[in-house]
Amino acid sequence: MADYIPTLRKDYKERIMPALKEHFSYKSVMQVPKLEKIVINQGLGRHSTADKKIIDVAVEELTAITGQKAVVTYSKKDISNFKLRKKMPIGVMVTLRHDKMYEFLERLVRVVLPRIRDFKGINSKLDGRGNYTLGVDEQIIFPEINIDSISKILGMNITFVTTAKTDEEGFQLLKEFGLPFKNVAK
Fold first, then answer.
1. Which of 24, 48, 110, 164 is deepest in the core (most CB within 10 A)?
2. Per DSSP, what are the bridge partners of residue 161?
């Protein structure tokens, strides 16, 4: 079990890295952008203030989806309009790195996204620094979630953090990993 390497990690070293080096004419493989981490964040909004059990359910669900223990996020200040007090639980998040990150990305690209009805691809708008955030409307698209036990449909943000310097480099890297971007004239 010690020599197990996720398929996408192997694919990155053998296929994606040389392709990107060629495409952008890098002088060294150290210049080639790589995927640093994937952050999955689930904001619970008004549900967290009304029902404390929602937080526990969200932690369980995100832990099942990612294979890594989710942590609760807390508010930083009081906001009276939202009935929010400082240090109240407002969401859950997980940061994936290394093998777990590659395994999650492979499941996302090969299993989860194809399950979405009428799926036409994801938007190709990056943040200006080569990172990309994918918004998911429902957690039930993940096969790890039992649809019968769902009490609230919650969305989540999946952020892909890369070492790319530009959006073009980040876009090309994520496209090589298999993220199904909508066809856009670039």
1. 164
2. 37
Residue 152 is encoded by which pair of tokens? 């609230």
Q: In degrees, to the nearest 5, what angle opens at C-alpha 155 toward C-alphas 66 and 82?
A: 120
Rounded CA gap, 89 and 142, in Å? Answer: 24
Instruction: Give the model confidence (pLDDT) of 69-122 as tens digits.
Output: 988 887 777 766 666 677 777 888 899 988 888 888 888 888 877 777 777 777
Quote the pTM value: 0.81
Return phi, psi of residue 108, to 5°. -60, -50
- Cα separations in angstroms, 118 against 85, 122, 124, 125, 165: 40, 12, 18, 20, 33
Looking at residue 186, what is its pLDDT? 46
Q: What angle do CA 167, 68, 4 make, to 5 degrees?
A: 80
Q: Which residue has the tokens 């400082």?
A: 86
Report the distance separating Cα 152 and Cα 52, nearest Å.
13
- In whole angstroms, how large is the CA radius of gyration of the chain? 18
Give first-to-last CA distance, the chain, whole Å.
43
Contact (CB, 8 A) for 85 and 24: no
Report the C-alpha gap between 2 and 10 in whole angstroms.
15
Mean pLDDT score, 19-33: 84
As given in the structure block, the two tokens for residue 88 are: 């109240």
